[in-house]
Design brief:
Helix 4 packs parallel to helix 7. The termini are far apart. The protein has 276 residues and is of the alpha+beta class. The protein has helices at 92-103, 120-133, 140-158, 172-184, 192-199, 203-214, 218-234, 240-246, 252-263, 267-275, and strands at residues 6-10, 18-26, 30-33, 38-46, 48-52, 55-59, 64-67, 73-77, 83-90, 116-117. Helix content is 45%, strand content 20%. Strand 5 (48-52) and strand 6 (55-59) form a beta hairpin. It is globular, with a radius of gyration of 21 Å.
């Protein structure tokens, strides 16, 4: 049976110029229209057919579909009763900024020659980042960093006249400044822009250099610093919910999930281990 038709539209906090759509079981036939934003997403079920850039396109499950600002297109079920997809709607300035940061110089707004991309790696990243951005408890640093990396991947692989991403340079002093600042501010909902200012690099360049140097991106390092701090607090009498808030998690379930991913234990079991 086809899923019931449903849609959720969200503007994630801390990410101006970004809208998210998660739609399931769409059966609608969209008249010819255009967006003032870039649209990029992944079909999860069914098939989406649309005419774009003078060509007929068919987006099947696992494929990336996209349109560019001002280009007229339509949309309708490609087969069966409908389709489900996750979509990003992105302001042109945001995409142009991502392209410039990836190139390391000012560049024109990227253009794309095809409305459907066969790129499983990019499709998986788009889905993962979409889910992350729809989680209200996800740290701002994770949302900003993952979105920037996803946009750079999309542009580097598929934009017209794009070049492969350059290798991440070595910036040991900048990375050290960023690492020390994360240790000192791990309780806060750190933004990537603020961390980049501390390091003296662009947000995109900092993320790549930090990851190359330490083997994990800044948002993952931040979670590790929070868990490290929580371990010390678990030796005391504070309630788990209070510890979660004290070390910067939005709620106890997010705290428990992160703690278990990094230690293999829930905070409660870790506390019992300390007491034995």
């Amino acid at each position: 049976m086809a899923p019931a038709e449903a849609a959720v539209l969200l503007r994630p906090p801390g990410l101006p110029g970004v809208e998210l759509l998660h739609a399931r079981g769409l059966r609608q036939r969209f008249a010819r229209h255009f967006h003032r934003r870039y649209a990029v997403g992944v079909v999860e079920h069914g098939a989406l057919a649309f005419r774009f850039l003078g060509r007929s396109n068919l987006a099947l499950p696992g494929s990336v579909n996209l349109t560019t600002p001002g280009e007229v297109h339509d949309g309708h079920p490609g087969s069966g009763p409908g389709w489900s997809y996750r979509m990003f709607y992105l302001d042109p300035g945001l995409v142009r900024s991502a392209a410039a940061q990836a190139a390391g110089r000012p560049v024109p707004a990227p253009d794309f020659a095809s409305g459907v991309l066969d790129d499983p790696g990019l499709a998986a990243e788009i889905q993962a980042v979409h889910r992350l951005l729809m989680d209200p408890g996800a740290p701002l640093l994770a949302r900003q960093g993952r979105l920037g990396a996803m946009l750079a991947l999309w542009i580097a692989r598929h934009a017209e006249a794009a070049r492969p991403l350059p290798r991440a340079g070595r910036e040991p002093r900048a990375v050290a400044r960023a690492r020390d600042w994360l240790d000192a501010h791990c309780r806060e909902d750190v933004s990537l822009d603020a961390l980049a200012r501390v390091a003296g690099l662009s947000p995109f360049h900092l993320t790549r250099c930090f990851t190359a140097a330490l083997g994990l991106p800044p948002h993952a390092y931040l979670l590790g610093a929070r868990v490290h701090l929580a371990k010390a607090l678990l030796a005391g009498p504070m309630r788990l919910a209070d510890i979660a808030a004290e070390v910067g998690f939005s709620d106890q379930p997010h705290f428990t999930h992160a703690f278990r991913r990094l230690t293999g234990l829930t905070p409660g079991r870790y506390r019992k281990f300390l007491q034995t």
